[in-house]
Amino acid sequence: MAGLMPDSMVSMQRPSHDFDAIYASETPPAWDIGRPQPAFDRLAKGGDLVGRVLDAGCGTGEHALLAASLGHDVLGVDLSAKAIELAVTKAAERGVTARFLVADALRLFALGEQFETVLDCGLFHVLDDDQRARYVESLAAVLPAGGRYHMLCFSDSQPGDWGPRRVSRDEIGVAFSNGWTMESIDPSVIDLTWDPAEARAWQVAATRL
Questions:
Q1: What is the DSSP letter of 155?
Q2: Could you tell me which residues come within 8 angstroms of residue 25 by beta carbon, excluding any fewer than 6 positions away?
Q3: How far apart are the first and last CA of the chain?
Q4: Is the residue at 97 inside a domain?
Q5: Nearest one of 108, 122, 150, 97 to 19, comparing CA atoms
Q6: Domain of 196: which CATH number?
């Protein structure tokens, strides 16, 4: 049943920064395009989502709702309570069954759940080096052997200095070098709400060993 679960909220270890304020603004953040990213839409509709799905850093829930609409048991988690509130509202308005929870992606073990698929659109690239290492360990706690991780993140081929830190192919490979099989790191794009209409990205698929 769609809904926020305040009695089961996972303890936060990181500050929420200003994401609540960003999501509460009358102007949606650049990444909140009101629909799934095309790369993940193709992934989902191509049958690449398997079993139970976790959307890590789900924001307002577009990818979690996409997976749920295709019949998957889905949990979306985000540090921003405002983002989760908006995701719950979307689920109710669309009549889609999905769960959403305020939780820290660096402590996914605290969920006490396992998933066959994890989605990450725009979370990895906002983490610093130490957080990235902790995040990969956190993913390993909820993905059993054979589980798959799909990511979209900003690419170092994106010109300019606006937006989040750019990520190189090598950085991704190093982050997932222990305990993972890297299936693919392909050029892609992340659609945005403003001009430029899209940003260069990496689309990543990795399997837990």
A1: B
A2: none
A3: 32
A4: yes
A5: 122
A6: 3.40.50.150
How much is the pTM? Answer: 0.90
How many angstroms separate the CA atoms of 175 and 208, rounded? 13
Q: Would residue 20 count as lying in a domain?
A: no
Residue 33: per-residue pLDDT: 94
Best CA proximity match to 181, nearest among 155, 131, 146, 153: 146
Q: Count of domains in the chain?
A: 1
Average pLDDT, 10 consecutive residues per value, the chain (209 residues)? 38 57 85 95 95 98 98 97 97 97 97 98 95 97 98 95 91 97 97 83 98
- Which residue's structure tokens are 């009101």? 34
Residue 65 lies in a domain: yes
Q: Is residue 55 assigned to a domain?
A: yes
Domain, as residue range, for 68:
35-208
Rounded CA-CA distance 87/66 in Å is 12
